[in-house]
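Re: the request from the purification team.
They wanted to know what the chain is likely to look like in 3D before they choose a buffer screen. I agreed to run a prediction and write the result into the notebook, where they can find it.
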Amino acid sequence: MLFLVATPIGNLGDISARALEILREVDLIAAEDTRHSGNLLRHFEIQKPLVSYHEHNEARRTAELITSLEAGKKIALITDAGLPSISDPGHRLLEACIERALPYSVIPGASAVLTALVGSGFSTERFCFCGFLPVKSGQRERELLEASQRAETTLFFESPHRLLKTLEAATRLLPDRLLCVARELTKQFEEYRRGTPAALLAHYTATPARGEIVLLVAGRSAKESRVLAREVRKTERHHNRQGKEMRQSQNSEEIQQAESPRG
């Protein structure tokens, strides 16, 4: 049986009793980074066979793990932080289990996405998680523009090394939208910093960000939604008017052709 086990996103005290129980009883643990996970397991005095499972060996390792699962082995999959398959390896192995009707279970726990969402103070009624922002500037700007059009809160993972470039783009593309930089979640220097893109850019230019980052974009306001709705209706009326004029013109031409004398 496969267990997808959530691990702490910073504070080791956030691991669940059930996660520890599972890690102690399985036959094998597959880890995104065996050195990182080895430290976690040593901290909790867990000694189990450990193999790597990451983006560079996912295809080959999946086949090996499926063979072991089919033989009745119990395997736990863990990543460096949080739940497997959320912007981390795991989906390929789970998909293979589903295709073969092999049993699996998800052991929930700490989540950077949900922790950042709640801590941001933005609306939690609806939200959109979009994974890591693209490295290429054009794709990154498209993601930010799409986020600016949403009524719900949008969340991205971002690297501290690219944060300034992202905030520079946000300053141009959505200057009045409220953002939140959530970083070092559950750790000693945890921070939720809200502000306009320009304000955040000024702060992190003076004080470079460190650690894992979740960037949140607040959903558009009710006023912005009303303005957008008016623009949509205006565009629709314009298109309808153009279509009506075109049909009238075509009908007029057909009538003229029908009434013209034929030789």
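For the purification team: Strands lie at 2-5, 28-31, 50-52, 75-78, 104-107, 127-132, 153-158, 179-183, 191-195, 213-217.
Please add any questions underneath this entry.
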